[in-house]
Amino acid sequence: MFESKERVALISCFQEIFCIIINDIYLDGFQIEVYDINNNLVGNVNIWQTCDKVFYLCDIFVEEKVRKNNIGTYLIELIDYLIKGYDCKIIYGSFEPFENNKKQYDKVNLERIVKSFYEKNHFSLMNFSDYYNNRDKYLFINETYFEDDRILIYRDYIPGNYSFIQISNFLVHENLINRLDEVDRFVKKKSMKLDLKGQ
Fold first, then answer.
1. CA dist., res. 35 & res. 17, Å (int)
2. In Å, how far are 10, 48, 139, 141, 175 from 180, measured between CA atoms?
3. Side-chain half-sphere exposure of 21, counting CA atoms within 13 A
4. How many angstroms separate the CA atoms of 65 and 187, rounded?
5. 3-state secondary structure of 68
6. Which of 114, 127, 133, 193 could form a disulfide with 97 if both were Cys (CB 3.0 to 4.6 A apart)?
């Protein structure tokens, strides 16, 4: 069975259910990992509080084989749910759009795709040169996390519009609410097979 210190969220992509394991890290932070039905790790993100009411979002990564199915967006929606009790005001981070890619993508096209993803999820984007010229406007940013070739992202926290619902010991995305029988079967199967202590 799942350990109480670990929380589990469930999402649906192309009719498959994916299991998200949430671990508390640091003093106020979360390590979030996405597993497919065969227990393969297909996505992850970390987020932690850097100072009062400010959270740092470490790179969101989703395996290429399951991209374009909103998993990254579901992770951001889950983050919004998890930090709702922290009186968060700002979420910020950075990304380098060419890392963690096995294929040699067209860099211009890949950067456009990554930027579009963050903009779709209400983030503003900023190059480091713009930041350095306007530091007084961004006092919430801790420069020790960044390198100059990365692109800064930030947005105000958007409270209240949560896509996850607590059902029993699980967080279930709203796209599964009409499939609770299937969710129940999935949970029973995973609780027998998935050893979280070994993850």
1. 9
2. 11, 31, 45, 41, 10
3. 25
4. 24
5. coil
6. 114
Q: Which residue has the tokens 């096209």?
A: 109
Q: Which two tokens stand for residue 91?
A: 């979420």
Tell me how far apart the alpha carbons of residues 171 and 4 are, in angstroms, rounded to a whole number. Answer: 13
What whole-number percentage of the chain has pLDDT above 90?
Answer: 32
Q: State how far the alpha carbon of 170 is from the alpha carbons of 30, 83, 135, 187, in Å.
A: 16, 16, 41, 9
- The predicted pLDDT at position 92 comes to 93
Residue 26: what residue type?
Y
Q: Which residues, at least 6 apart from 135, have a Cβ–Cβ distance to it below 8 Å?
A: 141
CA distance 194 to 199: 9
Tokens 């993508």 label which residue?
105
Collect all residues with Cβ–Cβ distance below 8 Å to 103 and sequence separation of at least 6. Answer: 64
Q: Look at residue 129 and give its three-state secondary structure.
A: helix
CA distance 61 to 102: 13
The first and second tokens of residue 121, run together, are: 């999820």
Q: How far apart are CA 189 and CA 197, in angstroms?
A: 17
Judge whether 34 and 20 are in contact, CB under 8 Å: yes
- Evaluated on CA atoms 111, 125, 21, 167, the torsion sign reads negative
